[in-house]
Design goal:
By secondary structure, the protein is of the alpha/beta class. The chain contains nine helices and 14 strands. It binds pyridoxal-5'-phosphate.
């Protein structure tokens, strides 16, 4: 390995496109003949404002964000948004509906309980979060301020293949699948994502919010978490995560060059298809999620033997295929196949799994 890049299947922070890293490296110390790094620029400078505006405009273009919605860059990651969503939106009726389909949606619901009444509209705990509820299975309550769901469950490897509907604004945590496919933005009151998977280095949340929802915040809402203030100050109430925003801009340019969201979707289907096809024909490895709920970003699988799983993860790493251990709360394996994972990386993984299966007959 040494100086070579390896295939990193980490769930996040995770791989960034190589051309993006190379571009960032080439202008690390002197951005666009400014004589300084983007890291060193005042966020109030003209040069930085251009980077910021271009990044936001590209995000609007690539995700087809309608004018009704504003794009915000906030700190505190997706976890910060668990609180921000409740503090900003719960005030409408004092109640909200949450679908619990995994660890992060459970944490989001728990956080929201601090600020109002939470009704659990679906809970897949009994099925060990291997399934996704259908629309008809959602127990939506009358008078909810919003309905929250997690569009892709990073730990369990399940993903909603439809946009749920509700009589109130729909709020989605898309931390691990935003930018991987076209999204019905207008069907959501709010979408948020910790950027460290498909979008940029860790340290920021991207938020897409219907402007009509701003201004209903609970009086205790910290100014830094207020959507109204963040909209009014164009994400610069305080110093924004300037370098993250610049890196997001580079990633967005790469996404556009690669065919935008339909290009990302095709690559996504190719990557996940290779691995799921292998799993469906394997006698050693089994996919963890129900077929109808499978995530095309995080593929979870196991051998059924914890020692063999550990051996697999060890030997894969020795072969340049790293970070394949499942999340500590579920064990087994997980291959995160975000936008920046080359198809070749998945081919190598599948080849390796085939060899491992031959050598470890049960
Ligand atoms: C779906 C989802 N939501 C929320 C989070 C938490 O994100 P953060 O670490 O940015 O707070 C994660 C992190 O892995 C995630 O995968």
């Amino acid at each position: 390995m040494g100086k070579e890049r390896i295939y990193n299947f980490s769930a996040g922070p995770s791989m960034l496109p190589l051309p993006v890293l190379e571009k960032a490296a080439s202008e690390l110390t002197n951005y666009n003949l400014s004589g300084m790094s983007v890291m060193e620029m005042s966020h109030r400078s003209k040069a930085y404002q251009e980077i910021f505006d271009e990044t936001k405009a590209l995000m609007r273009e690539i995700l087809s964000v309608p004018e009704s919605h504003e794009i915000l860059f906030m700190q505190g990651g997706a976890t910060g948004q668990f609180a921000a969503v409740a503090m900003n939106l719960m005030g409408a009726t004092g109640k909200a509906d949450y679908a619990v389909t995994g660890n992060f949606s459970s944490l989001a619901a728990k956080e929201a309980k601090k600020y109002g009444e939470v009704h659990i509209a679906a809970d897949t705990t009994e099925k060990k979060h291997t399934v996704i509820p259908r629309q008809s299975e959602l127990d939506l309550s009358a008078g909810a301020s919003y309905f929250h769901y997690c569009a892709n469950n990073t730990i369990y490897g399940t993903e909603w293949d439809y946009t749920p509907r509700a009589d109130c604004p729909v709020v989605a945590d898309m931390s691990s699948n935003l930018l991987s496919k076209p999204v019905d933005i207008a069907g959501h009151g709010l979408i948020y994502a910790g950027v460290q998977k498909n979008m940029a280095p860790a340290g920021m949340a991207a938020v897409i919010v219907d402007k009509h929802l701003a201004g209903r915040e609970l009086p205790c809402t910290p100014t830094i978490l207020s959507y109204k203030t963040t909209i009014e100050k164009d994400s610069m109430y305080n110093t924004p995560p300037t370098y993250n925003i610049y890196m997001l801009g580079l990633v967005l340019k790469w996404v556009k060059e690669m065919g935008g969201l339909t290009g990302m979707e095709q690559l996504r289907d190719l990557r996940s298809g290779l691995l799921y096809d292998f799993l469906d024909n394997s006698k050693l490895f089994t996919g963890c999620a129900e077929k109808s709920a499978r995530s095309k970003m995080n593929v979870t699988f196991r051998t059924g033997n914890a020692d063999l799983d550990a051996k697999f993860v060890r030997e894969a790493a020795a072969n340049g295929l790293v970070s394949l251990a499942g999340h500590r709360i579920v064990g087994g394996m997980r291959a995160s196949l975000y936008n920046a994972m080359p198809v070749e990386g998945v081919r190598r993984l599948v080849d390796f799994m085939g060899r491992f299966e031959l050598n470890n007959k049960i």
